[in-house]
DNA sequence: ATTGATAGTACGGTTACCTTACTATCTGCG
DNA sequence: CGCAGATAGTAAGGTAACCGTACTATCAAT
């Protein structure tokens, strides 16, 4: 018995803790995404900006709506929007029907970035599927979703 | 054709982006781990403290060694150690052979926390295995590791 | 017209890191 | 031996990504 696994109650055995595994997976994926975005000329986009790109409506959304959908506070989201505005990815206009509210809308460039990000993430996943197995990646997705749902309930 | 998937080039389709999936999986796992630790009386342990618990040697380790293993800077790790010291989980003693260096060692309580954390993570994983399938969780682990290795190379 | 809710902003705080000095100590060489 | 250069750790200050608690502007409803 040199290095055989699976004695009896041996479960995980893979030594590396789950949170570290998830964190590293997230990190390598995001690193690649942002590297590619930069490569394609979408400068100044950072991790936190995803909260806007992921949840904004085509016709624009209110700050409060984006905050709720992303689970961030209004302030946190406000800062993100300000940065994206500075970089020309979104614009803030006062809602004509409600002068308290502002509508945040993707600019042409912002839409391009959104499309590019979705495409790049798709490419990353497809490359994984090619190298590690299409079914295995699909399964990983499903199991991750189930795990999240399970722990949240 | 109501809601059937798998037309042609349809790959991920699961709408939720991979980084979000990984992040949520990490978050729910860590939330549960720290909740349980607290429940068992291990107070004041935070996410970042894992860098010490995961990488420290039984005979104690130097700050520099822990920093290297965890990928953090010496300063970042120094702060973490200071906090763990305040909470009584580790102690810092000057290395008798090299007075520049200090040896960081788990206290009795620190070792208990380390053991508890490992046990709890094992329990979490076992529960997933019971509810979602033992093989599926094992596969998820493997695929995650492969994905990480793949993107890092 | 005032009162209470709502949209967004301002200000300050926290966590988890980082970089750039700096001090103390050790090691090797002339 | 004595000093140069490396190494261990600390100090100071900065940044990113958040948070909560005010506060202002506006709206809606009596």
- Show unreliable segments of chain A: 1-9
Largest interface, counted by CB within 8 Å of the partner chain's CB: A-B, 49 and 47 residues
Biggest β-sheet description of chain A: 3 strands, antiparallel
CATH architecture designation of chain A: Orthogonal Bundle
Individual helix count of chain A? 6
Average residue pLDDT of chain A: 92
Q: Topology as H/E string of chain A?
A: HHEHHEEHH
- Shape type of chain A: globular
In CATH, the topology of chain A is named: Arc Repressor Mutant, subunit A
Helix/strand structural class of chain A: mainly alpha
Q: For the record, what is the CATH homologous superfamily label of chain A?
A: Winged helix-like DNA-binding domain superfamily/Winged helix DNA-binding domain
Helical amount of chain A: 55-70%
Query: Class of chain A in CATH?
Result: Mainly Alpha
Q: How many structural domains does the protein architecture of chain A include? A: 1
* Counted beta strands of chain A: 3
Question: Spatial order of the strands in the main sheet of chain A?
Answer: 1-3-2
Protein name (chains A, B): MarR family transcriptional regulator
Pfam family, one (chains A, B): MarR_2
InterPro entries (chains A, B): HTH_MarR-typ, MarR/SlyA-like, WH-like_DNA-bd_sf, WH_DNA-bd_sf
GO molecular function (chains A, B): DNA-binding transcription factor activity
């Amino acid at each position: 018995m040199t290095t055989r696994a699976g004695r009896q109650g041996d479960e995980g055995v893979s030594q590396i803790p789950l949170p570290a595994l998830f964190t590293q997976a997230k990190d390598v994926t995001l690193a690649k995404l942002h590297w590619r975005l930069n490569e394609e000329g979408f400068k100044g986009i950072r991790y936190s900006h995803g909260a806007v790109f992921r949840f904004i409506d085509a016709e624009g959304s209110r700050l409060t709506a984006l905050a709720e959908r992303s689970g961030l506070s209004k302030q946190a989201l406000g800062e993100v929007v300000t940065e994206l505005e500075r970089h020309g990815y979104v614009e803030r206009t006062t809602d004509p029907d409600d002068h308290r509210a502002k509508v945040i809308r993707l600019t042409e460039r912002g839409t391009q970035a959104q499309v590019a990000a979705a495409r790049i993430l798709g490419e990353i996943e497809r490359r994984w599927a090619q190298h590690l197995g299409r079914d295995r990646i699909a399964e990983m997705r499903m199991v991750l979703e189930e795990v999240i749902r399970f722990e949240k309930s």
